[in-house]
User: Which sequence fits this backbone?
């Protein structure tokens, strides 16, 4: 397990995050400018998981970009470095996002996931997301094929003790 700490993404991180985004979404990645535009959206959040492991200190292992506007949250993009997958880092980023959105009085969080992205679907299912709709031919693959998207939603209820 690679130990990580979470920190906000700043403008100085964007080249590094764009390079990692390209590894996570080959052929469909967002460049520095696109990521910067997302960060400038109202209610935007942008967080990274940074390695605290000896020999890899400071290396970005994962990121999430999201928005929280008028009680509605949205996950725009999330990715984990291939070498750091299946170690709970996406889960840590999502738990932090839930906490941030709770503080912003978000009632529900939505996202889109490709129907052929089984890893991401399992992740979201295990974090309480449910299918709320479908967007036909939402993603276009580099070979020209189109893939539907599931729209997933998770309610954020106040936890009472
Ligand atoms: C999807 C992705 C973000 C998951 O990140 P991760 O850090 O590896 O996920 P975690 O280790 O936190 O996994 C949490 C749970 O998700 C599920 N999961 C994650 N990867 C999985 C896989 N390859 N196959 C099946 N289930 C998987 C499991 O339930 C896992 O819990 P477990 O390991 O205890 O069984 C990562 O694979 C990735 O970056 N993929 C490319 C980019 C992408 O598809 N982003 C999502 C777009 S909607």
Assistant:
């Amino acid at each position: 397990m690679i130990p990580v700490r979470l920190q906000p993404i700043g403008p100085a991180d964007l080249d590094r995050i764009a390079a990692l985004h390209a590894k996570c979404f080959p052929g469909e990645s967002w460049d520095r400018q696109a990521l910067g535009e997302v960060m400038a959206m109202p209610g935007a959040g942008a967080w990274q998981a940074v390695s605290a492991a000896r020999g890899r200190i400071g290396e970005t292992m994962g990121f999430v970009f999201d928005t929280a506007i008028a009680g509605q949250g949205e996950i725009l993009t999330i990715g984990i470095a291939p070498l750091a997958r299946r170690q709970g880092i996406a889960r840590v980023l999502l738990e932090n996002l839930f906490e941030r959105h709770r503080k912003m009085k978000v009632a529900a969080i939505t996202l889109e996931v490709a129907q052929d992205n089984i890893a991401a679907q399992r992740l979201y299912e295990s974090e309480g997301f449910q299918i709320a709709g479908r967007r036909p031919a939402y993603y276009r693959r580099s070979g020209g094929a189109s893939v539907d998207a599931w729209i997933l939603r998770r309610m954020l209820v106040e936890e009472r003790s």
In short: The domain at 4-155 is CATH 3.40.630.30 (Aminopeptidase). DSSP finds four helices and seven strands in the chain. The chain has a mean pLDDT of 95.
